[in-house]
Amino acid sequence: MNKIPSTLLNDRYWRGVxxxxxxxxxxxxxxxxxxxxxxxGTIKTGLLRKVSGPWSDSEKFILRLALHLFNxxxxxxxxxxxxxxxxxxxxxxxxxxxxxx
Length: 101
Fold this sequence. Notes:
Layout lengths: L5 H4 L2 H12 L1 H5 L6 E2 L4 E2 L1 H7 L5 H14 L15 H15 L1
Antiparallel strand pairs: 1-2
């Protein structure tokens, strides 16, 4: 992924998304220009959902959380956080804090 513009790093809608995509092993694999246009500030959510089809429940949850943090029209069920192990729960909570605090 190219350099992330500082405007996105300071944007409450992007901070949690970037945190998850930079720190989650599966999301790192798709943090590419195929799915993101950082200059335009857009995410190809449909393509990400499609590519995540064969992922585990926990990996899909992290993706859904990231997309929800970006735009609340992308729904996530926080009860699905039960799929996560302790390190991924910590990562998810950090991302939520970055968005809402």
